[in-house]
Amino acid sequence: MEMFSSSVIADLVNRSISFLFSRCQKQTTATVQVDLQLLRRLLMRSDTIVEEAERRHVSNQDMLQQLKALRDKAYRGYYVLDTIGCQALLPGRRSRDGKDKEEEEVKRRTFALSRFNPAKRVRFPSAGDPKPTVALDGASPEELHQMVCSLQAMIDGMDEFVVLLMSCPPMYREPYNVYLSLDRSMFGRQMEKEMVIDFLLKTEPPGAVNQGVLPIVGPMHIGKSTLVESVCRDEKVRNHFSLITIYSRNDLKDETKATFRDKCVIKHQNNQASSGKRLLIVIELIADVDEEAWKRLYSCERSMAQGSKIIITSRSENIVRFGTTEPLRLKCLPVEAYWYLFKTTAFGSDDPRDHPKMASIALEMVDAMQGSFIFASMGADLLRANFDARSWSRVLTRLRQYLQKNASLIGEYPDDVKVKDYPRFSWSVIKEKPDKYFMLHDIYQRGSTHREVPPISLLDLLAERAQPPGKYEILFWKSRIPPYFNYMCTCEIRDM
């Protein structure tokens, strides 16, 4: 009897525990569904506020900070929404047989590259290292609920912001087709743009003898030229200055006042009396600035009219010492904002939730691309041209191979390295087992006025639309937004 009673009690306890777990699971599922619906509605409200703000001239710094916080929160919301959506729609993703799981582990053992660490060290995990956390593992029900509550509180607290926003003057609108695609407009730099414009339009104190100088610092391909170009095209800036010129070279060494002015390109000329004779000089450099060269040129430019300004950009942090105001440091986009950009350009009008497997692959691509605008643009082009999960998986594999091969040779993230000193290696994304590879030498930049653009692009080679033998010049990448830079390089095809 005692044994029978014990077994009955144990069975009842097990049933009770199972019932409680089942009930908790159902409650959690119901809560997640409610939070997902609420998050979608909140994101629609935040999109409405942001879109209205982007149609108006917002100059108040507090409002700009609020707007940036709302954008960042919305990007995080979309990121959480999409990662949870992929988890829910791919229940079998973690339930593969042992062989598939082992292959997936090998694919995931990519190197740890840090574009945010100045040392840019590369670490290849050993066989005993734990598997790196990937995007799909980043969203839990608790995080979802926290996301909903914080976004709700932020939107509820923006009533005054919306009222003040309606008093801001409407902005000059570019043709509507510019807004049809995010990859054809500057993305993620609205706050920085307004900060630069605020510096340019700020009135100097009476009796100021020095021209205002704003340093803009950031690594290669981070968007310094794109940001400056967008500022120089702004109507308020063009109406404020009588002349906008740009100097773009490696450095200022050996430049005199005469040679410097001769090498400056006129970006805009304004003959309206309201602009006076104020000048805006943009100096875009790659290397550091020689102290004596800067002093020599800056002393020559002191004769410029009151209110004239100078913007200097470089990859070198040393230019900060020449500024008369706090420098602007450009960094990679947060992963949430980068995901929003990439999924919009890759999926186009398709909803990623309708293609959960492809969305999962795209999320892993975002992990690998480390915020690179060039990789995002080329990757989105390849994915749109081959819109199926098998092709996307092959592109992801090729991307990982490309990064690991080049980083192992040069020790840096390929989008950061001084590419003139090292060749890059790449392969076809069409063939399952490529039999040839491309060596890319001496990547260099040309402006939009450069007419001799090679007829063959790197995308043509990757997609095997062209593969002529020998060594020849190709178009590495072409920017779709001002200043429309073209990047060319010499390509050599070799057998594996």
From TrEMBL:
Pfam family of the protein (one): NB-ARC
Ranges of residues in domain NB-ARC: 191-349
Signal sequence region: none
Name this polypeptide is given: NB-ARC domain-containing protein
Annotated source species: Urochloa decumbens
